[in-house]
């Protein structure tokens, strides 16, 4: 059977309809499935136990062979990078034979294509046996085998994935009557418990925003000040007006935004992906960027009134040492300025989404490549390196679009009718370029603690909710 040439991981990602980030999460989850003791590496006993939980009998010696194949440096343990290299090689191998069997190249293996491949390999199989084979692999019961189903069936098979070996693997393992117990762990499939992941992410975001609320309040107050004001004088002013509570003013609304914004963005992204990708929904990096940007714009528009009220709450003067009531502030905006006022500054907010995401993504990938080349000697970066790259790229992206954020905040805080152009010219004439970067320091200081806290809380929530 002739192997297709020039198969790359991009082909695998397209076949799985998966981003590289989603794939990384999936592989990490599978590694954690075996590493249930959280040792950071796998030994033979862990692999044997993991395969046993998948109802693969130990007498088939797959655990020994899988351990040997993964343990590239022969040190008696398999770290994540070795495991990742095995997964990379195996998925490429599985994609090659999948493509060879899928002679119609329609993205799935039909029963007749599988039968033809088996016959060419000298394996005689009757219709009933073929139907059982397809039924076992075809998890959605639509009569065909997608690459994701093919991958799930063979990912942990440590031997060469020839059609003969695949058939004998099915004979030995999959004809055993094990009922409903033989399940692929959640980490193998990208269709994980999304609602619980969303909840974990929402709680992580809420904790992170609360922890960095003082920096957020400081940033917003500095952004709206026309005259030069230093960080320390502004901190003293906030303390003088409201004491410690002043640094957390508006945080309630900020936290309330997390869940709806994440949910709307996620749903919009899932709907936009197939629309942008066309038939099959397979999209590349630029299309994913566009879909993500559009989803972000939809989410931003939906929750924008909350953001405007938060800004007003953070920038208004305390009355008698007390912040205004949220409902009264909202009512005053509605009565005095009308419903349109809740969308002041939306345009600069929206036009900054795509540039920010593009700069963030490009910087992240560049930093990952540099770390892989100069620090890790061609091994894949681990979670800490990825977190560092993400924080740096996020800070760079935020800095590049920061002038738009300043214009947006000033439009939100201004009760008079003003356009983006008017606000831009007013800032330029009165303060020069420096005015567009007021509050940048506390904004950058938020990056490290916000990302770190989000990551730590998210990982803890995943463990508590059995999402690992």
Task: Characterise this structure.
With 468 residues, this protein is mostly helical. The chain folds into two domains: 7-173, Recoverin, domain 1, CATH 1.10.238.10; 188-463, Mitochondrial carrier fold, CATH 1.50.40.10. The chain is 66% helix and 2% strand. It is built from 22 helices and four strands. The strands form two sheets. It has a two-stranded antiparallel ribbon. The protein has a two-stranded antiparallel sheet with strand order 3-4. The two termini are 38 Å apart. Belongs to the mitochondrial carrier (TC 2.A.29) family.
Quick overview of this protein structure:
This protein has 468 residues and is mainly alpha-helical.
Name the descriptors.
MCP_dom_sf, 2 domains, metal-binding, mainly alpha, Recoverin, domain 1, two-stranded antiparallel ribbon, 4 strands, 22 helices, Mitochondrial carrier fold, transport, 66% helix, 468 residues, two-stranded antiparallel sheet, single chain
What is the helix fraction of residues, given as a range?
55-70%
Number of domains: 2
Neighbour order of strands in the largest sheet: 1-2
According to CATH, the homologous superfamily of the largest domain is: Mitochondrial carrier domain
GO biological process, one term: phosphate ion transmembrane transport
Membrane topology: Multi-pass membrane protein
InterPro entries: EF-hand-dom_pair, EF_Hand_1_Ca_BS, EF_hand_dom, MCP, MCP_dom_sf, MCP_transmembrane
Subcellular location: Mitochondrion inner membrane
